[in-house]
Amino acid sequence: MNNTPLLEIANLRANIGDKPILKGLSLAIGQGEVHAIMGPNGSGKSTLANVLMGNPAYAVTGGDIRFKGESILRLKPDERARRGLFLAFQYPVAIPGVTMVNFLRQAVNAVRGQEVPIREFRENLFSQMNLLKVDQEFARRYVNDGFSGGEKKRAEMLQLAMLQPALAVLDETDSGLDIDALRTVAEGVNAIMNPKMGLLLITHYQRLLSYIKPQFVHVLIDGRIVQSGGPELAEELEVTGYDELETAATAARA
To answer: How confident is the model over 53-101, as pLDDT tens digits?
Structure first.
């Protein structure tokens, strides 16, 4: 049996400009596992998501990221995507003039490394739209152009369903969503999730975790994971907040 984690982050350090953001972060995610990273604003949560996908604005200064047993630090974002990494952005970008259907077809072709027959693509697209309860008219709209917050996140879930990555990273997907939109997006993630896929949820609040249940919860403070536990940890944080952990982390550095 292969016990190699799907994703293994080892003592990762990363800067933006001259400012250190990640300061020795370690984490392992296996197939079928749902992990949540929580933490206050400025703790490094979104930096982690960007570094995982190879955003060139962030410089890795130490440690390693291994995906399926292979270091991916030298790989460009598109190469990481082809290997099965997916990032759902906190603030998805609008692309006026490009329809969802054309965008998705190009994305699927790029990740697979070959042209997918149109009939096969359309059958898969409509199947996934039915699964996510998305109206077919959605496919003819321009990518995120004039979309509500909930529609943008639903578009990301449709990308996730079409690409079927090995590991999905959701960067504050709950940001800006009302309770109905949040429930809809969470139902979509739960429908897509399968035993071979790993999932990393990055969030500030516990409410998303009421709908997408993680087996593991990690607290990120000042670029380091300072506490890990089960789903009950998220519930505790909802009551106690991060102040005590931030104070302890500051004292440990003194």
So the answer is: 999 999 999 999 999 999 999 999 999 999 999 999 888 889 999 999 9
What domain range is 185 assigned to?
7-253
> What is residue 173's predicted lDDT score, i.e. its pLDDT?
84
**What is the arithmetic mean of pLDDT over 22-40?**
96
Measured distance CA(93)–CA(113) in Å, rounded:
24
Q: How many residues belong to the chain?
A: 254
Q: Where are the beta strands (DSSP E) in 52-93?
A: 59-67, 70-71, 85-88
What single string gives the DSSP state of each residue in 178-229? -HHHHHHHHHHHHHH--TT-EEEEEESSSGGGGTS--SEEEEEETTEEEEEE
Per-residue pLDDT, 116: 94
Cβ contact 25:58 at 8 Å: no
- CB atoms closer than 10 angstroms to residue 96: 9
Burial class (CB in 10 A: 0-12, 13-18, 19+), 90: middle
- pTM equals 0.91
Could you please report the per-residue DSSP string of 100-111?
Answer: HHHHHHHHHHHH
Place of tokens 């008219």: 137
- In a domain, residue 55? The reply is yes
- Domain assignment present for residue 189? The answer is yes
Average pLDDT, the chain: 92
